[in-house]
Q: What sequence folds into this?
């Protein structure tokens, strides 16, 4: 449990530092991630509709 909490805090710390040090890169990364998730959702919707 302790290691999981440490990993969780470390993950958020790394993300916060990345956002503070490279804001434009973080914005492009988020755009790419959400675009990929939207494409995945569209593909899943098309698959479910086909069934």
A:
């Amino acid at each position: 449990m302790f290691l999981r909490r440490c990993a969780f805090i470390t993950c958020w710390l790394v993300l916060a530092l990345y956002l503070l040090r490279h804001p434009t890169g973080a914005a492009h990364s988020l755009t790419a991630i959400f675009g990929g998730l939207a494409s995945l959702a569209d593909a899943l919707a098309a698959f479910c509709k086909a069934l």
In short: The mean pLDDT is 92.
